[in-house]
Write a structure and sequence with these properties.
- There is one protein chain.
- Helices cover about 65% and strands about 0% of the residues.
- It is mainly α.
- The protein has one domain.
- Helix 3 (about 45-70) runs antiparallel to helix 4.
- The radius of gyration is 24 Å and the shape is elongated.
- About 10% of the residues are buried.
- Keywords: Membrane, Transmembrane, Transmembrane helix.
């Protein structure tokens, strides 16, 4: 039993457009994984598909079920919030774990901690010859 016959034309077109955009963005994220070479480059491509792709597909579901009036749209909102919160956290955890592993293996292509520090956040010299930014005191 399909409710598609009861769906207004504007809702059907908007739902179709949002589904195509969501599927396209997800496909773009998957192609990005194949195109990039290193893990650190590859980790960024799927976030496009999970955030914007899932958002567009969830929005299509909201439009579809709201226009039919069959149920409340709580599920899609919760999915969107969950994806928005968990994707950046997962990305950071994976990137930090990979960076830690690469530094432990002493990979020459990964910058050391000293290179990654900002100039203002460098520790103060122990001999008292300058300030925290590394400028000599007069």
């Amino acid at each position: 039993m399909s409710h598609a016959a009861e769906l207004p034309v504007w809702a059907a077109l908007l739902t179709s457009l949002l589904l195509l955009v969501g599927a396209g963005l997800t496909l773009l994220g998957a192609v990005g994984v194949l195109q990039f070479r290193s893990f650190f480059e590859r980790v960024h491509a799927p976030t496009l598909g999970t955030s914007w792709g899932t958002g567009a597909i969830a929005l299509a579901s909201i439009v579809f079920f709201s226009s039919l009036g069959t149920r409340l749209v709580v599920h899609e909102v919760l999915i969107g919030v969950f994806i928005t919160v968990t994707t950046p956290v997962t990305l950071m955890l994976l990137a930090r774990a990979a960076l830690h592993r690469e530094r432990a293996e002493e990979n020459p292509n990964v910058p050391s901690r000293a290179v990654m520090r900002r100039r203002g956040s460098a520790p103060a010299p122990e001999d008292g010859a300058g300030d925290a930014a590394g400028t000599p005191s007069s």
